[in-house]
Amino acid sequence: MRLTHAQEAMAAAIEDQWLASALETGPASREAAERGVREAYALAGVPGPSRVFWFGSPRASAAAMAFLSGAPAPDADAPAWFAEAYSSLRAQGWTPGETGGRSLRRLVRTEPWAAARSAAAAALGPEGWAQLGSAAGRRSWELAMDRVAGRLRLRLGEDLSPSPSVSSSASASPSLSFASLPLVRSQLLDAIYGQYDAAWLATFAAADRLCPEAGLMTRLAGLATVAHNAGWWWATSRFAVLTERPVTLTRDNVGRLHCGDGPALAFPDGYGLWAWRGMPIPPSLAASLPSLTVGEIRAEKNAEIRRVMLEHFGYDRYLRESGARRLHTDATGVLWHLDLPGDEPLAMVEVVNATPEPDGTSRVYWLRVPPSTRTAREGVAWTFGLTAEEYHPLIQT
C-alpha cells in the first residue's frame, strides 16, 4: 500500500492532535485516566487494580513504587521528597507492608503494542507502514519522546544514582539511604509513559483511520485514554500508581527544553528539570544567568556550562568586555579572537549591515566562525560555505 498525499496530510493532522496531548501541561483528568487504566487492565485480561494512588511527579511515583515493592520507611536522613512520598501513600490508604504484586507493564503495554504493530504492518504493508511512520510519528517522537520524555528519564536516572552528575540539581538525592536507592531507581524500568506514549500512539491512530477494519486501536484504547489524561504511570497486579502532568513546559524554537530563569519542565510537587537549549543545567546556574559577569564565565571550568553562560551573556558582549584581540580588518568586517581555557578559542566576525535602518543607523551583526579563521573575509565567506577567494558578493543588503 502506498499512501496518497491526502492520506499523508490526514495522518499529519492526527499526529498534531496526539502531539498536543504529549506536550500538555496542567492537572490530570483523574477520573478519565483511572478509567483508562482499568480499561487497559481489562484489555490485557487481568483484574483491575484494587486502588489507584496519585503523585505529583515521576520521582515521587517511583518512590511510592519502591515502598509498594518493600522499601522500608524512610529514616531521619532520607530526603524530604522521599519521606513525603511515604506520607502521601499512607494518606491515600496504604498500610505499610502492603505490596503491589508483580509488574503488569508487559501485559498492559508491551504486548498490546507488539500486537498492534504486527497487525498494522500486515494491513498497510511494509512500504505503507514505513510511509505512515514518517507522516504521523517521526515528528512527535522527536519532539515529545526524544526532547522531553527522554531528557526527563535521563534526569531521573541521574537524580536517583549514588553520585549525581555535574548537571544534576541541588535537589538531587545524594543522601537517599543506600539500601533504598537501587529499589527506587529500578522502578523507572517499569514506568509507562502516559502522555508521552502519544508519540507512538499517533501512528497507530492514523493507521486505524486508514484501515478501520483491522481494529488497530482496540487493544490500545486504555493506553490512549491515559495518554490523553495523565503523565507517567505504573501497573501492578494489585495497585496502579499515576502521576500528574507537568505544570510547566518551556521549549526553544526547535522543541528543546529551554528556560533561562526557572525550570524548563516542572511538576506540581516541585520536582523539575532545568535546561538551556536541551542541555540540563543546575538550578543554581539558571538563577545566576541574569546577573552573570565576565569573571564568572572565565572562572567556569566546565566547557559545556561555560557555553551555556556565553550563549545567555552574548558572545559579542563577552568579546567586548573580556579583552578580545582584533585579529584582522577588511572591507567585510572585523575578525575578533579570544582564548577560552579548556575549550576551543572564540572567533567572531563583526559585520555592519550595508542597508541603513529608517533612522539612518546601521545594525551590527556578529558571526561566529571557526577558530582557524585568519581574515574577516574568510570568516564571512565560511558562513556561505565558500572560500575567501570564492566570496565576491554582487549586492550587499
Walkthrough of the structure:
The chain has 397 residues and is α+β, with helices and mostly antiparallel strands. Helices cover 44% and strands 12% of the residues. The chain contains 14 helices and 12 strands. The strands form 4 sheets. It has a 4-stranded antiparallel beta sheet with strand order 9-10-11-12, with helices on both faces. A 3-stranded mixed beta sheet has the order 1-3-2, with helices on both faces. The chain has a 3-stranded antiparallel beta sheet with strand order 4-5-6, covered by helices on one side. Strand 9 and strand 10 form a beta hairpin.
Brief digest:
The protein is an alpha+beta fold and 397 residues long.
The biggest beta sheet is recorded as: 4 strands, antiparallel
Which whole number gives the mean pLDDT?
A: 90
Q: How many DSSP-defined strands?
A: 12
Percent of residues in helices = 40-55%
What is the topology, as strand order, of the major beta sheet? 9-10-11-12
How would you classify the quaternary structure?
single chain
**Number of distinct helices:** 14
The shape is flat
